[in-house]
Amino acid sequence: MAGKMRRSEAGSSSGSSSSGSGSSRGETVVVDCGRCKSSCGYCKSPGRTSISHGLWAHSITVDDYQDLLDQGWRRSGCFLYKPEMERTCCPSYTIRLRASDFVPSKEQQRVSRRVQRFLDGMLDVKNPVEATDDPTISINTCTCACHEASSSGMKDSLSDQSEEKRSSEQIVSYLSEQLDKAVNKCTEHGGLPSGIKLPKASVKKVSQGKRKLLVEGGKDLLYSSNIAFQIAATLNRAKSANKEPSPNLENNAITAKAIAETLVASVDQLAQSSSSLAVRACNGHINFYGAATQSPTESSETLSGPEESARGCKRKSCCSRKNSEHLLGKRRRLEVRLKRSSFDPEEFDLYRRYQINVHNDAPDHVTESSYRRFLVDSPLVFVPPSGDSLVPPCGFGSFHQQYVIDGHLIAVGVIDILPKCLSSKYLFWDPDYAFLSVGKYSALQEINWVKENQVHCPSLQHYYLGYYIHSCSKMRYKAAYRPSELLCPLRYQWVPIDVASPLLDKKPYVESLLPHVPEKITDEQQHDDNVHGDLNDILVDDNEEMVEPETETSDDESGPETSGHGSVEIENGDVSEILIGLKGARVRYQDLRAAFGVKEQKYLESQLHRYKRSVGAELSKRIVYSLG
């Protein structure tokens, strides 16, 4: 037997590989935790009705974890788990979508626009639900249709009519306020008489039809005001009543043109630097244009500086028009940073706030150690970028994706980047930013990341959203990311959710989601349930995504069950090729079997049958099943 054994450190993440991925990617070493039970955070059942098979991973290659995902597994820190679908209270189906096929819903588009409007200073934070929003991630990116293919990858759409109306009303109100301030300033400095009550400014949006009637710059004229005419009329009436106007008006000429030019000169000094409109006096009218279209030879002032979002756009008028609406507050800068999974005190502080305020966790339960075990520790062996089309620039492994606005960390997405997918694990965010629907927005960004990185790694095709629980209403939101697929727990094939949903409407667990495939219990499953029973049951504390798997061993785990059953045969559920790790050695079970007594063989083989059924035949040959 010794001649067939090979040496390697069981806990090493860089040892010789037993997988098909090659030695450069390490090896996968796991300890079988058997059946795990916990209370359910979804149906809130009083007992420990959430049942899964658990593995503790010392190390795991990205290729093996990709295959485990496609067998229905997930990880929480270094703990791997797979629901026992026929036993657990809330059957959980792995859900994914092909990123290139993703079509955002209207609600998802609204979320993108809301975030963009917040970045542009256009979102009324005091009343965020009623405010409108624009798409894309960066404030330096044009949002027009000509940038669809190269921007964030999401399918942007125009705001609906009600949103446009509210947006226009906000802009009109803002511009009117600025003109009133300009009138007051001119009055204070003697440009306009102080003893006369002047009318309030009124700004109106210029319709598309009227723009076409104008010649120079008409297509970019957005808003206009005739306040100068109203003031001129008021002053002329005052003059006819022997009330002299201000001597600052040339030759005491009370003309709308002169007043308009006086007001325009004051507007720029009052406007906020976040705005991006050009204001120009034109024959007594005060007109507001996209800043890029102003004529340098005319009397004009620009309400803001550079138009970075128009850079590289073929439709500058489109960009200018959208920039002209950034008027309510200062612009904000969003950065999305991808970093290797590691402990960060700032991230932990944010996680603690999130768990306490959003999930109502007790403060003394949100500890640094539990956070590390849940979201920092990872058994995935990191694969650095290779410079070819096999690995993306960031490499493969576990990452934290930070969302930072003006230097303030507002959210962290915990993700695994694997050869065929980005697997979303968890997200925590600042409760103060709940109005931005950060969870939905981060999902859209993760989908977009996959699409953008297919150029560097063509095998990256899918976005995995974790588990979908049809019987749990709060988990059904995942079906909104379309077109998605569910993993059939019998055949391990992907089934469109539109096909699976009618079946799941009838009962929460459907063994076969594929049409015309009868549900049945396999020979190995029947054998496993009869022989093994609950010998290796482990109790797991409850939390979403199996947080903190602190385990307890059940009392009846001391030995194998013998009554009424013969020895386990290595036939249908052949376990002879399972790779065993023992004291640093790697050996197939068939070469190790003789080293055990009859009772030990029976107990171990019952565990190996269940393990093989859970991970699949191929993975059982590659993954090291550690016995110590």
- Shape call: elongated
> What is the residue-averaged pLDDT?
77
Oligomer: single chain
| Beta content | 15-25%
* Gyration radius over CA: 33 Å
Instruction: Summarize the amount of helix as a percent range.
Output: 25-40%
Unreliable residue runs? 1-22, 129-160, 245-251, 291-312, 314-327, 517-572
| SSE class | alpha+beta
Tally of helical runs = 15
Distance from N terminus to C terminus (CA atoms, Å) equals 18 Å
Number of E-type strands:
23
Largest sheet, described in full?
10 strands, mixed
Description:
The protein is α+β, with helices and mostly antiparallel strands. Helices cover 29% and strands 21% of the residues. Strands 1, 2, 3, 4, 5, 19, 20, 21, 22 and 23 form a ten-stranded mixed β-sheet that branches. Strands 12-13-14-15-16-6-17-18 form an eight-stranded mixed β-sheet, with helices on both faces. Strands 7-8-10-9-11 form a five-stranded antiparallel β-sheet. Helix 3 (161-188) packs across helix 6 and helix 5 (227-240) packs across helix 6 (256-270). The longest helix has 28 residues, at 161-188.
